[in-house]
Amino acid sequence: MPLPTSPDMAWPPKSLAPVYAKLDEWTAWYSGELTRLTRVYQGVDLARPHNRPSQYRGGLVGWVARRFWGEPTPEGEHRAKLHVPLASDIAQTSARLLFSEPPTLTASNKETQKRLDELVDDGAHATFLAAAETGAAKGGVYLRVVWDNAVRPRPWLARVDATAAVPEWRWDVLWAVTFWQVLENDGNRVLRHLERHERGVILHGVYEGTPDHLGRRVDFGAHPDVSWLVDVAPTGAISTGLPDRLTAVYIPNVTPSRIWTDLPAAANLGRSDYDGVEPLFDALDETWTSLMRDLRLARARLVVPEEYLTSLGPGNGAYFNTAQELFTPIKTMADDSAGLNIELIQPLIRVEEHLRMSAEQARLIVETAGYAAQSFGMADGAAVTATEVNARERESFIGRDAKMLHMRPKTAEIIETLLMVDAVLFGSGVTPEAPQVDFGDTVSQDPESVARTLQLLEAAAAISTWMKVKTLHPDWSDPEIQEEVDRIKGDAPPVVDVGSSLDALAGNNPPGAEEPEEDGVNAEADDQAEE
C-alpha cells in the first residue's frame, strides 16, 4: 500500500480518532504541562479563564468537562491550579525497573557477538530506557532501525512514540506502520513528513495541509529537515534489502487494552500505566491546589478602627501605617474604648488534613497503576536488605515481569533486524541472529547476603567453584572466570587423606597388606617364650 494520495484525507485517520484523543490525554499527564492539561480538559489554550457551555451540562459530557482541570473558573479570578508530577514519576520508575542496568545481549556466534557489542555501544541503552518510559505513559512504543552514512558508519536504533504512528495489523501482527512528524504549523498551514515502513521498503513523503487534513504532496525541498531525501531517495522509496521483514517493531507496555478491545485498528495496542487513574491524578492536583489556596487566603489581616487611619486628603482615602509605634489616644464616650482595639485575624491552614489526603491519594494512584508504594519512597523505616526490599516491592517486580514478556522478544527481534541491515547494507559479514536478552536485577544484593547464600550451597555440595565465581562476578567472561577458578585452586592447601592417616596410627591395615616387620619380631619372641 503506497503513501496517501487524497488531499482530503483526515489526519490522523478517523479510524484512530478515539485512540489519539486518549493518547493526547495521557501525554498531557506525562508532560505535566499546565497548558496541555487545560487544552485537553477545556479545549482551549489561553492564559485567561475560559468557560464553555459543556462545563455546565449534565451527563457524561459535563462530568468530563467539570473535572478539576476542566471546571469553570469564575470570571475575574486568576487561575492558580497546581500540578503534582506523579504521572511522570510513574513512567520514569517503570523504565528504571526495566533498564536500570543495560540488558545483556548474547549471540551464539562469536563474530556476531563482537559486531553486536559494537552496534549497541552507540547509545542503545539510553534508547531502551527512553522507550520504556514513554511506552509506560502512552501504552507502547516503536523502535526502528535507521542508517545514514553521513551521520554514522553503521545502523542504529531510534525511538518513535505511539502518538506519531499509524499502525496496520494482520492477524495481530504488525504488518506496516506510518510514522509522521509535523515540520511546520502556523495554525492554518501544516507541513507533515510521513515515513511508511513496509516489508522490504521505506516510503517517504512530505504533505502540505491543514490541522485536520493531510493535504497535497510536495517536494522534499519544501523543508530543510527533509531536504536530504532529495539525494538519498528522489522517488521517496528506500530499499531495506529485507523483503520479508519490517525495519520497525511495536512494543506494548502491557496487554490487553481495556478500552480498545472493540476497536479493530487499536485492539493490539498496549495499555498505559495511566489507564483508569486519570480521575485520581485530577483529584490529587485538586487537593494540593486546595492546600495552596488555604495558604494564600490565610494571610493575617488587621481590622483597624477608622480613628487609626491616616488621611491622604479629601477624595484620596486613608491608610494605616503598620510601622507606626505610637498612637495618641482620643476622647471617646464612656465604655466605648473597646471599639478602638486593633484586631488580628489569622485563618486556619488545614495542613494535616490536606497532607493526609494527598498521601492516601498518591498511594492509591501508584497501587492502581500496578506498583508498590515503596517504589516511590512512601515507606517509613530504616534501611533494609535486598531480600526485604524484594518482599516489600513484590507488586512492582510482578509488573516488571509482565512488561518483560513483551519487551524481551521484541528487543531480540529488532536487534536481529539491526544485524540484518548491517549485513546487507553495510557488508559486516556476520551471521544475523536473534540474541538472548537478559535483564539485570533491579535491586543489587548486598555482599553479605551473596556470601551467605554461596556458603550454604557449598555446604550442601550443590555448587561448583566455577559457578560460585560466576555468581559473585556476573559481568565476567568465561575466560576470566576460569582464570579465577585456577587461582583459587592454586591457593588452596594440598588435600590430606585424614582417614588413611588415622588408620595407620591405629595399626589398622587394609586387607592383604603385609604385617610390619616389628610385628613379626614380636610374634617370634612370643613363640620362644611358650616353648
From TrEMBL:
<feature type="compositionally biased region" description="Acidic residues">
    <location>
        <begin position="514"/>
        <end position="531"/>
    </location>
</feature>
<feature type="region of interest" description="Disordered">
    <location>
        <begin position="487"/>
        <end position="531"/>
    </location>
</feature>
<protein>
    <recommendedName>
        <fullName>Phage portal protein</fullName>
    </recommendedName>
</protein>
